[in-house]
Amino acid sequence: MHYLRAFFSALLTTACSLVVVLGLAALLAGLALYHLRPSSTDWQTQLQIPLPAALAQVLDHQARAYLPSDWHLRSGGAPSTAISAQAKQANGPQQPQGKAALPATTAAAHPAVPNTVPSNGRASLIVPIGIAAAVDWITSPTVARLLGGTQWNTRYGPMAFEWDADSQTQTLVCQACSATLPALGSNPISLPELRIALQREGPHLQGQAQAGALQARWTALLQRQQLDIDLQFDEQPIRSVFAAFAAQIPEVEKAQIDGTLALQVQLSLPSWQLEMAPQISDFRVQGLGTETLPTAPNHCPRRNDLPVDVNGFLARAVIATEDQRFYQHPGYDLAAWQDSLQHNQTRNSSSNPSDPQGKPVQPLRGGSTLTQQLAKFVYTDGDRTALRKLRELLYTVELEQTLGKEGILRQYLERVYWGEGTCGAQDAAEHYFGQSPDSLNPAQAAWLAAMLHRPDYHAQRWTNTGRIDVRRTQWVLDQMRMLPPLRMNQRERQRWQRFVTENDWRRSR
């Protein structure tokens, strides 16, 4: 009897201790989440915390009045369930203004639905948190020490935390990490592993980042509305950059890549505004076989075997409209690329797909040179992704070495698409004007070149209206005149502008 009484006493003590510990843990967790609550102007996201259905029922019916109005429940895959009558209103305007890699799964806000939590299965508690407050909390030494050795699932991939007490350094290791940078395309950029070591002093963060052999130093300023990051890649082999994406760029294994790269990056979150200042030296590529391109099959139908004159009006017009620094750059144009980066970010920052007059926003600008365009439609696909641009760059650099400028221009003119199923200069000149490309006058050459950025659109417009895009063609003529060596004087330019304006330009068939 004595032993039985002692057993029940120990059991009761253990149960009470467990209840107290769980209660304290729940209280601390609740206080932490409450501390992370954002204001309406904060950079914020939402945590999705899995709950047993029984606990969700308790929260739904018993503790509703004690929980913040912007916390709500979601049952299974259904829309979220409001905890209080005010949750529906709170959920409306307070949409997340940004997202960050946090130690929990994030969830977008959902409209409130009637208060119903299933009696079986699982539910989730949706809690808004401020990103800046969360980063500040996670990087504090006390919390960083507790997080050390743990792993969390984030929207960017599994994130493991490490803590070095001697150097007060927290390291985040993201396996199979991926993120989307709007400035570099809509598809995510993936890395097998990304290690970010950080040290913190007040709102200032600093440390190192490493992806394979690619290394960088970084500093950041943490504010309630944003995080501004400066990333500095000291001069290092260009091959290290490509090796970080070797699993997704098959050319890395067979290509010999030489040269060095230094890069300075400024990134602002949550807007994802990106500025990059690369410096490339002695970039060379061998082993991709681009020297065989002139004898490789051409899918474009050729009307005769005469090569296109790379010094004629059409070649000049194409350079004027597509790549005015064609003879100056080494295949890639860093200035044009940076211009397109800023253009695309300005375009993506627009919340409306159309301007006030209902016209569509400007299309994405690629910043590609003629050599890069040739590499794209011969060797890579047409997806607007950063990885495709890296693959394209390898072929671009080797094409410059193997074919030279005139060889690249000739191959471009023989292979580029010109709308309505036509491709190549021979086919296009005969299709639209019934002439050979070398017999085109400047205005005709300018019109064909003006088509290249949207060939099907311009061809359809010509079919529907019987007229050309006069303004764009005149712009191409102006660009042609400014290219050295001069092939048109002022009187000739005015003559062709009048010719463009005054003629109906019915197409020859």
UniProtKB/TrEMBL annotation:
A molecular function (GO) term: peptidoglycan glycosyltransferase activity
Origin species: Lampropedia aestuarii
Domain Glycosyl transferase family intervals: 312-480
This protein's GO CC annotations: outer membrane-bounded periplasmic space
Coiled coil residues, start to end: none
Pfam family, one: Transgly
GO biological process: peptidoglycan biosynthetic process
UniProt-recorded name of the protein: Glycosyl transferase
Pathway assignment: Cell wall biogenesis; peptidoglycan biosynthesis
Compositionally biased tracts (Polar residues): 343-355
Keyword field: Transferase
